[in-house]
Amino acid sequence: MSIAPLIEAETLPAPEVEPLPAWVIPSNKGFTAEDLDRLPGIPPHTELIDGTLVFVSPQTNFHMSMLFLLESGLRRTVPAVLRIKREMTVTLGKRQRPEPDIMVIHAEAVKGPRQTTYQPADVVLAVEVVSTESEIRDRQRKPELYAEAGIPHFWRVESTEDRPTVYVYELDPATRRYALMGIHHDRLKVALPFEIDIDLAEVDDI
Q1: Residue (of 182, 123, 180, 188) closest to 149 by Cα position
Q2: Residue 40, Cβ neighbours under 10 Å: how many?
Q3: H or E element: which one contains 136?
Q4: In Å, what is the CA distance from 166 to each residue of 7, 34, 175, 188, 189?
Q5: CA–CA separation, 190 vs 145, rounded Å?
Q6: Structure pTM?
Q7: CA dist 108 → 98, 104, 111 (Å)
Q8: Which member of 82, 140, 177, 178 lies 3.0 to 4.6 Å from 169 by CB, making a disulfide possible if both were Cys?
């Protein structure tokens, strides 16, 4: 009976493991607003809410179509002293740097092409199009933060049976809370922060 010779397996080098980026494991102090500009490899459109990094999930066709429709509608009638900005952050505090879907800001707040954020006093209107994964943030926490920071106008956009519904809020400066001023289904027509008239049904054509 013969015995087959033992063959030593070739020892392969262990695969190199890349170190985790610093933002994967936060310190016990959490992150600050300035960290969004310093952390290497951070995903685009990352927000900071209550010291925690919030990453953007893939967006639905409704979400992107509404952004296009609202941005286009706002640009049609925006006064020269204001600007429309999309998907940029506003620094509300040391540990608060959310990214509204759309903002209307004062023109003088635009400082140049390298600018990455705005201040609350720069913002006239913040708009959030609610996504399934961000319902609590868009309906509760972010409006609270915008109101506490003194942003005078806020819109929340919902999908109701695949049709847009826009909730329009105005800040009560005495309480620093938003008051609901109207609910719009087929047409968004308001006088503040400037004259705006948007046919919401056009979202089907985008």
Answers
A1: 123
A2: 7
A3: helix 135-136
A4: 72, 32, 23, 7, 11
A5: 23
A6: 0.87
A7: 21, 12, 7
A8: 178
